[in-house]
Amino acid sequence: MRKIIYILLFPLLWGCDSVLDVEPENAITFTNFFKTEEDFNAMIFQLEGFFRYKQFENEVMAFRGFLADQVNSSYYGDQRMLNQTSIINSFSNGWRNQYDLIYVANVILDNLYRAEGIPQDKLDFYAGQAYFVKGFVYFDLARKWGDAVITRNSTSMEVYNKSSMLDVLDEAIKNASEGYELLPKYEDMPLLGANTWVSKQYGCKGSCAALLAHLYAWKGSMIDLCGLEGDAKKCYEESIEWSTLLIEKKAGFYELERTSEEVCTKAMKGIGASQENILEFELDRFQTYPMAYFPGRVWITWPVKGTETPGSVVTKDFVIKAETVKNLYEDTDDRRDEYFFKLDSMSHDTMYKVNQGYAYVYKWRDVVYRNVSWSPTPQVAYIDVNYSYWRLADIYLLRAECYAKLGDDLAKADLNKIRNRAHATPYPAPGENDIQLAIFKERERELLLEGHRYYDIIRNGLEYIHTYMDGNYKTLDQQDVKEGALFLPIGDEAFNLNDLIRQNIYWSRFE
After folding, report:
1. In degrees to the nearest 10, what's the CA dihedral of 95, 101, 102, 105?
2. pLDDT value for 157
3. What is the pLDDT of residue 27?
4. Which residue among 337, 365, 384 closes a domain?
5. How far apart are CA 138 and CA 308, in angstroms?
6. Residue 431 counted as domain residue
């Protein structure tokens, strides 16, 4: 019964307009709770549920960075062209979900002292989950908004001003480091009251290490890109150290899938099917209408969705030409024929009237159908995959990128580790002489449509932004970038009851 009470009580935590501008819940609300393992387990379950859907209700940056030949959506088109007037009025600018998550994590941390008779290792686990979520969310805030608010706890009634992007990243690093110290490796994760497999959405040493690897790589890149004070070289070295812990299995047992086919059938599927996956976000298959949040969902059509036809590809928000795919991958590269369905035969001249030369994404392949009253045939209920957020191939290529920025020849071995699996030509292939560019292009090929490319472009600097982004991105200078052009403007909701917050300099020009 107590667990049911928690589930009913927890929505009350979301009644405030924003953690930034109203009084928090009175701490006395929790006096009779947060005592038993059952209590804390219930709160962790709820935190994970909110983490899954609140964090990814809006992943606009993933859509900004997609490698696409045509975008059939004015909203996504505006984002990808950096059309300022449209973006400043966009619904995507609000950060309420992120601060709601930080608030809930703080509620857990602030009430650990109430525990009665709970073993220390379990308390460490609860705290570690909260620290991991906070670290992840602050990283997300820094990558999406740059400067952002850092809150102290769940009970403070003060009004907060923004902190600098580097301070927000340091707050993320602090929390992720705490999580790494407290949490076990994935294979040693405790069960939460049931004899079941533990989801890879939960924080563990591996997911904290991946977070820290990305945090330091991003921090070093921002120092270089924006001309900020700081030691970018040391940041790249830190990223390499955290990546190495994962690659050498010191932060948990992770290893690459053997083939590109297994990347599609295991890593992209998730659900514990892949040892390559470090962090997954669970699809809630118990909902009446399960929502998949992985960015690649917007590309999926026939033949994965059996209710659609070959001609449906032209109606998608994003499409890519078969010729673009052929130019991206060598003929020997397995990924061209695993990530896309029958690339050559479906792009034959005879098919042009049907698909206008567009390719069929086949990286995600599992669909569940449901009988519905309005159709004589079953309809697609949902795409039956988890959101594979970080996998080991990403970490190899991230380490390679950092090695390249340091001028270390070890970058080549990491790059070729991924190329060799796909049967692509090892670096240097004919005509290749820029290893940093080769690594960027390899991330583009390996992680295609997984949502990383926008951040990959930014990490590589202004020249890459001018080359691989469109519209107003091509005219940005370093001062524009330093003033917030690459980030989202702060949404109107954040200014309610908080007169300390100011819009980013770049976006204030368009208000």
Report:
1. 180
2. 75
3. 43
4. 384
5. 40
6. no
Q: Please give the Cα distance from 511 to 505 (Å, whole number).
A: 11
State whether 350 and 493 are in the same domain.
no
Residue 428, Cα to own-chain centre: how many angstroms?
Answer: 30
- Cα 207 to Cα 128: distance, rounded to the nearest angstrom: 11
Judge if 34 and 176 occupy the same domain.
Answer: yes
Q: What angle do CA 162, 164, 167 make, to 5 degrees?
A: 110
- Residue 428: asked if its preceding bond is cis (omega within 30°), the reply is yes
List Cβ neighbours of 441 (8 Å cut-off, separation of 6 or more).
none
Confidence of residue 237 (pLDDT cuts 50, 70, 90): very high
Domain end (from 357, 384, 411) = 384
Residues near 496 by beta carbon (within 8 Å), at least 6 away in sequence: 17, 18, 21
> pLDDT (tens digit, 9 = 90+) per residue, 125-170?
999 999 999 999 999 999 999 999 999 988 887 888 999 999 999 9
Q: Answer yes or no: do 33 and 167 share one domain.
A: yes
CA neighbor of 62 nearest in space, from 507, 369, 455: 455
Confirm whether 259 is domain-assigned: no
Residues 134 and 16 in one domain: yes
Provide the terminal-to-terminal Cα distance of the chain, rounded to the nearest Å: 51
Does one domain contain both 18 and 156? yes
**Taking all residues of the chain, what is their mean pLDDT, rounded to a whole number?**
91
Tens of pLDDT along 2-31? 333 233 333 333 333 333 333 344 444 566
In a shared domain, residues 42 and 169? yes
- 233 domain-assigned: no
- Among 211, 169, 205, which Cα is nearest to 185's? 205
> 498 and 352, same structural domain?
no
| Inside any domain, residue 447 | no
410-461 pLDDT per residue, tens:
999 999 999 999 999 999 999 999 999 999 999 999 999 999 999 999 999 9
The boundaries of the domain holding residue 356 are 295-384
Report the number of distinct structural domains present in the chain.
Answer: 2
Per-residue confidence (pLDDT) for residue 442, from 0 to 100: 98
For the beta carbon of residue 117, count every other beta carbon within 10 angstroms.
7
With contact defined as beta carbons under 8 Å apart, do 353 and 173 qualify?
Answer: no
List, in order, residues 6 or more apart from 120 with CB less than 8 Å away.
Answer: none
Residue given tokens 């472009």 in the structure block: 457
Asked if 35 and 171 sit in the same domain, the reply is yes
For residues 401 and 416, the answer to whether their CB atoms sit within 8 Å is no
